[in-house]
Fold each of these.
Amino acid sequence: MNAADLLKIMKKRKENIFIKLLIEGEEQLERLSLIKEMQIEPVSRRVYHADFYEIRMDHKLTIDVPLRFTGTPVGVLNGGDLQHLKRDLKVSCLPTALPDFIEVDVSGLGYRQLD
């Protein structure tokens, strides 16, 4: 796969991108896949390796879905800090039901004074 084309696709969506691969050989095969892992050279930011995971639309897949936090917590308004240790959740579903992200409203969160 052309690395420049892959980067164009990745700029549109950062996570869980379905890619249709055309595999040439004795006969041409078409496979739906997800990028499982991508390695980028740290200095030049060029892609030098990508692993693809073949998916089927009639089988569930388990994948990490990013969390998107919305709102301003009451605790932050009162001088506290919001620290979230979890940035994604594992979701198991059919590919057609896979969300782009899970929205979490944190506006009701308070804080507790530590002694």
Note: Helices lie at 3-12, 74-77.
Amino acid sequence: MTAVLEPTNSFVKSFEKTPGHARPWVNDLRGRGMDVFKQLGFPTTKQEEWRDTNISAIANATWSPAKLVTGQAAFDLSQKYSFGKAAAAELVFINGHFDPHLSAVSNLPKGIKALSLEKAFESDAALLETHLGKYAKIEQHPFAALNTSFVREGAFVHVAKGATCEKPIHLLFLTLPGAETAVSHPRVLVVAEENSECSVVETYAGSDSSVYLTNAVTEIVQGKNSRIDHNKLQQEGNAGYHTALMQVVLEGRSLFVSHSTSIGSKLTRNDLHVFFGGENAEATLNGLVLANGEQHIDNHTLLQHEKAHCPSHELYKHVLDGKATGVFKGKIFVQKDAQKTDSKQTSKSLLLSDTAFMNSQPALEIYADDVKCTHGSTIGPVDENAVFYLISRGLSLAQARHLMTYAFAADITRRIKIAPVRARIEDFMTALHGLPQDLRIADEARHDVALL
């Protein structure tokens, strides 16, 4: 257990200076978050859940709240990551603040809302009071407690009963240079009611020229027979830090598909928890990590099976180069009432250098006696025999190694249905090796979530 924070801590000071909210229940939510954060303190490597990720650089820094930046720089960065007409709606946040001038929300179909959290406090107060802060378990996650302390800015997506949306809703969180060691706390709430369907993309990106922290929390609650395809693309700046918790709650016969890609930041910690609260709910978690230099990317997942007849599939792949380090800790938890659970978990890692390091810890905790659960983990270098074969067919060494890693990652990217997300990952990989775009692997014919 870490020590209680001193009153001089920059986050405590910022909290004390934060103006009160017009709605008392929001103030109560914030106060509870800060109380929990003070009690927990920052996690240390002496704690089991954090023993492979040292966040002392975050804990020892003095952070100031990020401020809204406008002008040409904000416009240019938003255009770089925008989906344009490929999105049904695009909400743009600069340094954690919603920018209505860069956003577009007019093409949403009937029954679907996508708006800033601050605006939703006025238009959908009852829904927010019912759901906001009810699912993220802040007592187990200090950074989520910290995020809750500063709840104000963020996004709210509501999909009404029976509503569908063919194009994705894009939530774009960008960080621009401002005050050094600036921090933002994006909050996302997605409520999908019965028989509804939509796709949501969260993109996190920023400048390489400043040190900053993005501390995000996403809560997703799905009603019966609902379907959500969720993509998260983390492409923060090289000096940025990224911490995030996503909590998903599934009712009966609902389907949740997650594609999580981490290719940026100096240090990333992602926690993804899926709670099966109804029978015949299903979840698929796909993850891709592309890290080099001295990046550190840590993914923790939990599939919490509480009800019977709930299948789940999980595949995380890591490509590590240079002195990059990766962590994957995934747990399948099966409660005694969750009979007929069918769950599969796989972690595969490719090390491109002798100095890259991967720590993979898949785990099962089962209290039911009629289940089918498996897990597996592999870590290894590029197959040099295959590389030699490609070189013998006229490719350079760089091209051969690139194609091998590209094919390894394509097992994840080809499952991504949202074309702009898939293209951005492919572009990043080719640019990383300085290779032409015609070396892309195009496979848009199959996107079967059951390929595991």
Note: The two ends are 38 Å apart (CA to CA).
Amino acid sequence: MQDAKVEISGMAKDGTWLRVQAVLVRDDRDEARKAMLEDPTGPKTLYTIGDGIFEVFKLTQIKALKYSFTKEPEEIA
């Protein structure tokens, strides 16, 4: 993977917003794949362990900032 950086953001009803920055790392453990498939929202109808196309990634080097129009950004993770 050439660029494994990811950013996720979302806004709360009070007008603050969260920005999460992280680096993705492939998790090749079958235990991780099994946990994903067992999740009720998981893709168990589409993928199986060992199918060669189902991959799991984990977030590393996580930095989360809470923003507001009235305050300085607050690091929360």
Note: The first strand starts at residue 5 and ends at 11.
Amino acid sequence: MLLGSDDWSVEVVPNPNPQLAFPVHQLALTTNGIHLLENMKLDELAAKRAYEFAFIVQPLKLEGATGSTVAPVAVR
């Protein structure tokens, strides 16, 4: 599973509850094993009304890393 966003964060920043620090990251990644992909460039897909496509993405293989850059591809 993957949760993506065309913004720098999938969170509400600042969070209305100051007791919570990045709750979407915590629930998605650690609790549910859902990977996050931020800063996606989606305007071209939206302009082409590409609502269905095969999504291909491979992160860099970095030992001990918590994230990396990717080069996602949408194939229609």
Note: The helical segments are 23-31, 43-47.
